[in-house]
Amino acid sequence: MASMRLVSSILFVVLTLAGMGPRVARGVGDEPAPAPPQLVGPPPDHGGHTFALTIAVADSTGRPLAARAQVLASDGHPRPSGPDPLLMSHSSIGGYFYLDGETTLAVPDGQTRVVVSRGPEISPVTLDLDVESDTSVTVTLERFTDLRPRGWFGGDLHAHTRHGRLDYEPTPEQVRLVAEAEGLAVLHLLDNGWQFTGGPHALSDSDAVLYYSYEHRNQTFGHVGLPGLRSPVSDECCLYPDEPPYPMILDLSAAVHAQNGGLAVLAHPHTTDDYDLLEDWPGAGLGRELPVLAALGGLDALEVASYSNDPDLDTAEWFDLLSAGFAAPPSAGTDAVLNWYSQPPPGGWRVYARQSGGGAFDYDAWLAGLAAGHTFITSAPLVPEFTVGGSAMGDTLEVAGDSLVAPVHIEASCAAGLRSVTLVADGRQVWTQDLLHGPVAYDYDTTFVLSLPRPGWVLLRVDGASGFPALAVSQPIAYTSAVRIRHEGAPARLPDAMGRLLGEVDRLRDLLVTRCDWPVAWQEDTVLARIARAREFYARPFRSPPTAFALLSPPPGDSATADLRWQAAVDPDPGDVVTYTVRVGEDSTLAGGWTVESADTDLVELPLTPGRWYWWSVTARDRAGDSVASSPALARFFLASSAGVPPGRRELRAQALPNPSRGAVALRGMGVDVAIYDMAGRRVAEAGRGVTWSAGTPVWDGDEDGHAAPPGIYLARGGDQKRLVRIVRLR
Hints:
This protein is mainly beta.
């Protein structure tokens, strides 16, 4: 039976205007918040009067409070209209600033909107004022809920005050004010030595902890935040192309774990889809080592939510880790830069961790809760309780049979109102409750019995209603840690997820082999050996080799065209994938010929020379590396002249041959407009400049402006720019 709180937030606001008595301000939920204005320059000359607007903020006892405020003036611009080092003003999310109890701003006369907030446990206040004279406003912020007595405390594990350029130079006192104004019990400042003491800053107390620490930036493997760090560490590594990718984050994680409770949290693991971009951000922040870290025990948590993820909230890799049997506690670190005027605020995403034992906030106990996975991440909704079969978020549940039949208990709330609550199991939605119909629900509390085929894990997603005026991101949403399901003491390891992670391990290995120089052999051996161990782990579900298969065409003898076709090899392991290696040469050794990797069962119009004999073979390989040769293992055919084949008889599939390559590459099916681009988008070759024709097929000689193109990833685009082929160039 579900119960919901349906009453509106009660807001106490006193306005003192020249010649006017008190007014009652409208509260959140009465109307949608306006679209954030875009600050495009200084506000225009208003041409009217300017008045002083004084804003005071207090709690229900009258005690002054630090808060975040937004003031949208009648000219459509925020106030302050530019950087203000005392108010720590910023232009993001429509403009905002911080006040310590009270402040006064100059605003033009007319309609002015004021929004005051202090994190998701406090109901924000929205005021619409008609400023006609000097105006004083006292805003009383009411507590929407208090999770502290239940052991829950929210934190932002990734922010900066000394990052790059310095629009501001925030002092620890100002940062402490920001933490209070955002309702953060923990704010980690990853400023790489600035104010680092190996413990909470001296300004910390049980209400707010500032912890200045390090963000270690490994340009090849990813970035990592280090909560609980006791001793300094290096802040960067493996700068491409000057330094080899060693040591790994795995080495740093081991060193931090030895520091009495320190954790390694992978920062913004998904900054971009451009995996091959090593030279610059965002590729230099991509968490490429993630599957290796998880497999070898170096991952304590990962930033599922961050302003630097693309998108902010990225669950795909997290869900795969859960489906591979890992705890994978979710964390949140905004990567907010307090010293940049253009940045959104810290705490826009935050992680709540539950410390055991209750009582006042204790940083070490809070970190232990984070490491144990007793967490949820959120931009606004709150989840004080979620259990499956009595097991709480981050814990495990033993299930004996093939089905999960267990009571589920959910408590959720949101100061913006609730939209829906949803159970997710193994990455799929298995139950949902829509809460938009009827009066606005701010609390939801229910218990019911869940029955479904035994999953590997179950977690809760909570969506808040739109119109939350203090929201720093696009959506009010929360995710809990998963309750992991065990059977006979073992976690589920789902083949599809294991296969995807295995593919990421292989992609990392290919990148290192093709792009990196290793001046010391043992470093390369160490890194590749660790990758091999991770690969062995993810390959465990894929033990059966592919089935036998036969070459189909051409049969021995004449062939009008060089269409090579073969049967599909089938792999009996669920989730396994078969790929093929096709080799073609002019003698039975196949030396010096073509080698093509393909997921298809045919190669069409290979650029071979008519009037010659060729040998060919196909090998099928699965995800674990098990392989089987075709039957026959080697076949010979004669390529007759193809002059009589009507043009356009078949649609040519765009393909680069050979690929990977150390030299020239034939570009089948690309057209006369083919051009070669590097991953920075520069055109390195085109017709008449590195691209020639052989037997009607364009061929890139592998050069860039007369010199051998460096190893890496290139793109060939042609066929009226509609066809795209990825080329891997080896050393």
